[in-house]
């Protein structure tokens, strides 16, 4: 079965007259960790709830694991784990009761595995859910999504409310499951996190996909900042007209610039002088992200799909 | 109790169900214990003979009607009190089923499981029916026990007929609440519309005895099929019971149809 894990064609959802998502064409391959990034109201939750057949598209189609979400929702959901963005749990149950109930609805789950998941996330199963803090509820939500070892995990802002240590454990969990061949579709606003977890990232803006790219190549294509420190003051003219260099500033013995693409020409130009140090502050996806967002819709920038 | 949606729904209401059962049993025993006093009160008999028509329309045609066991239970319990209690109970279950859970936001988690929406609605409807039927059994049992204790001469079979009618009536409005919840996802609207329908159809039926213009309409009222055949006196009227059952089933099916089609609110 070579189908994609998720495939949408012209997927569109309007809530009355307000836009949820519009003409979304998205492909998530099997076995990858796909990050779905976008600011508030971009349409992440809408897309995810369309995939689970909780809401129905205005037009367009979506397939999950090769099956149409409208026709075969039950078969899809058997093989998918889901963490809702607005997680609400049964307040009157304990964590363990909740997990047992959800496992029963799926025809059982591996209880040892479930316990080990809960243990790793430091999630107390014996407490009544109404007494749990927000982060501890989120842990339960994560455990229930993983516990039946689904082929595909669809998670809406999974690390919402988790403390940094638990976030790291969650990242490890994702990497482990990925090694076993699990596919992930994870929405987030947290860019460093997506950098760490994901193979590919889709950036959604105002209901449409603004860009899809490998995390690595996004970083490569993006503007980097470069600082070169020289032993003596250097003439700015020596660096004029080098391809890919922007915002060039030379102040005494320090050159700063932004750079897209290869550094080769710049380094060769700099090599004519005595170089003390070259630094390139790591560019976070955040800056790349902001870079995408600054562009007007339809405006051509590198990396646009 | 966490095996499936049906059992979980029953489990969620086990405490409230227990209180309802206690309340209904207490009410029944209290009423029956009070009966010997009523049946021997001459002033009440006089009062009934002179009562205006509208009073009679509500509590029975004659004093004899009122002081007989079936007349007494009709006027004191089965005409207003019992149907009101059963309707309140069933409507609260019917509105909690989908709209209630949707309001709390847990429906996303529930429906992400590999179960069709249709089954969620049907299991929850079944759980509402089972709980209401359970209360019906409590009603019947406590009246029967009370009648035996206080020498009230009424057959358990007729008490069963009246209790069952009460359950069936409650379920009609419970299923209406379920259907409105399945359509709108709003619990308040579901309770409101079901309660308003119950009050309206109650008055359509009870006033149709006096107001000529309402006469033809009485048969659209579920209360007609609940009580017009006088189950306390004559036992169960199968045709009337079936009408109520059919109305419940139709509303249940409508609920499934409506719920399958719409977006789940966040
Ligand atoms: N039930 C609804 N009714 C009307 N509009 C809605 C509804 N749900 C979402 N929207 C609108 O659809 C758009 C997309 O919302 P969505 O919840 O998918 O965003 P999101 O990317 O998940 O945002 P966030 O990061 O805040 O979770 C928003 O403009 C929102 O106002
Ligand atoms: Mg969201």
Provide the fold topology.
The complex is a heterodimer of chains A (about 300) and B (about 270).
Chain A lengths: L5 E10 L2 E11 L4 E5 L6 H8 L7 E6 L2 E2 L4 H6 L1 E4 L11 H11 L5 H10 L13 H13 L5 E5 L7 H16 L3 E6 L2 H7 L2 E6 L2 E7 H7 L2 E7 L14 E7 L2 E6 L4 H7 L4 E5 L5 H10 L11
Parallel strand pairs in A: 3-8, 3-9, 6-7, 7-8
Antiparallel strand pairs in A: 1-2, 1-4, 4-5, 9-10, 11-13, 11-14, 12-13
Chain B lengths: L4 H8 L1 H26 L2 H9 L2 H7 L3 H5 L1 H10 L2 H24 L2 H5 L5 H33 L6 H29 L2 H21 L14 H6 L3 H4 L3 H23 L6
Helix pairs in contact in B: 1-9, 2-6, 2-9, 7-9, 7-10, 7-11, 9-10, 9-14, 10-11, 10-14
Description:
The complex is a heterodimer of chains A (305) and B (266). Chain A is of the alpha/beta class and 305 residues long. Chain A folds into 2 domains: 214 residues, P-loop containing nucleotide triphosphate hydrolases (Rossmann fold); 60 residues, Protein-tyrosine phosphatase receptor IA-2 ectodomain (Alpha-Beta Plaits), CATH 3.30.70. Chain A is built from 10 helices and 14 strands. Chain B is mostly helical and 266 residues long. Chain B has one domain. Chain B contains 14 helices and no strands. In chain B, helix 7 runs parallel beside helix 10, helix 9 runs antiparallel to helix 10 and helix 9 runs antiparallel to helix 14. The radius of gyration of chain B is 20 Å and the shape is globular.
TL;DR?
The complex is a heterodimer of chains A (305) and B (266). Chain A is α/β, with parallel strands linked by helices and 305 residues long. Helix content of chain A is 31%, strand content 29%.
CATH homologous superfamily (4th level) name of the largest domain in chain A? P-loop containing nucleotide triphosphate hydrolases
What is the CATH level 1 assignment of the largest domain in chain A? Answer: Alpha Beta
Estimated structural class of chain A: alpha/beta
Helical element count of chain B? 14
Average residue pLDDT of chain A: 89
Number of domains of chain B: 1
What is the assembly state of the chains in this entry?
A: heterodimer
Classify the helix fraction of chain B into a percent range.
over 70%
């Amino acid at each position: 079965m070579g189908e994609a894990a998720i495939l949408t064609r012209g997927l569109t959802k309007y809530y009355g007259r307000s836009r949820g998502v519009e003409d979304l064409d998205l492909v998530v391959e099997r076995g990858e960790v796909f990050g779905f990034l976008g600011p508030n109201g971009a349409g992440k939750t809408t897309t995810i709830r369309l995939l689970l057949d909780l809401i129905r598209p205005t037009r367009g189609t979506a397939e999950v694991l090769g099956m149409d979400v409208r026709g075969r929702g039950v078969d899809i959901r058997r093989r998918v784990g889901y963490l809702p963005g607005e997680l609400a749990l049964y307040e009157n149950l304990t964590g363990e009761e909740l997990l047992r109930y959800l496992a029963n609805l799926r025809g059982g789950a591996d209880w040892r595995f479930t316990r080990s998941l809960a243990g790793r996330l430091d999630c107390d199963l014996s407490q009544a859910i109404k007494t749990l803090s927000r982060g501890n509820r989120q842990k339960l939500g994560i455990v229930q999504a993983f516990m039946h070892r689904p082929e595909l995990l669809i998670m809406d802002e999974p690390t919402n409310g988790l403390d940094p240590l638990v976030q790291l454990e969650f990242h490890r969990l994702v990497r482990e499951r990925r090694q076993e061949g699990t596919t992930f579709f994870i929405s987030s606003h947290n860019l460093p996190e997506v950098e760490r977890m994901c193979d590919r990232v889709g950036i959604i803006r105002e209901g449409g996909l603004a860009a899809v790219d490998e995390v690595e190549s996004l970083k490569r294509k993006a503007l980097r900042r470069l600082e070169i420190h020289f032993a003596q003051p250097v003439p700015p003219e020596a660096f004029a007209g080098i391809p890919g260099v922007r915002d060039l500033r030379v102040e005494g013995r320090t050159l700063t610039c932004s750079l897209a693409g290869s550094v080769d020409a710049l380094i060769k130009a700099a090599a004519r002088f005595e170089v003390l140090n070259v630094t390139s502050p790591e560019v976070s996806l955040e800056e790349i992200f902001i870079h995408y967002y600054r562009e007007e819709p339809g405006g051509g920038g590198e990396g646009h799909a | 109790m966490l095996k499936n949606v049906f059992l979980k729904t029953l489990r969620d209401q086990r405490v409230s169900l227990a209180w309802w059962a206690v309340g209904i049993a207490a009410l029944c025993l209290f009423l029956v214990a009070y009966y010997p006093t009523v049946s021997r009160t001459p002033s009440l008999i006089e009062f009934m003979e002179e009562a205006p028509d509208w009073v009679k329309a509500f509590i029975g045609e004659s004093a004899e009607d009122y002081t007989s066991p079936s007349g007494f239970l009709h006027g004191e319990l089965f005409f207003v009190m019992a149907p009101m209690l059963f309707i309140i109970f069933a409507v609260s279950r019917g509105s909690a089923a989908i709209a209630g859970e949707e309001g709390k936001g847990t429906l996303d988690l529930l429906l992400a499981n590999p179960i069709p929406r249709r089954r969620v609605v049907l299991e929850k409807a079944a759980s509402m029916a089972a709980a209401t039927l359970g209360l019906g059994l409590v009603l019947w049992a406590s009246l029967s026990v009370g009648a035996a204790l206080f020498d009230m001469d009424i057959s358990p079979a007729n008490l069963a007929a009246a209790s069952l009618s009460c359950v069936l009536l409650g379920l009609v409005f419970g299923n209406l609440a379920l259907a409105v919840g399945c359509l709108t996802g709003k619990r308040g609207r579901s309770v409101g519309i079901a309660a308003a329908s119950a009050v309206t159809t109650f008055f359509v039926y009870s006033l149709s005895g006096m107001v000529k213009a309402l006469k033809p309409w009485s048969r659209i009222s579920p209360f007609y099929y609940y009580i017009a055949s006088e189950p306390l006196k004559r036992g169960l009227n199968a045709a009337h019971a079936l009408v109520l059952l059919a109305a419940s089933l139709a509303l249940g099916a409508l609920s499934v149809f409506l719920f399958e089609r719409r977006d789940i609110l966040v």
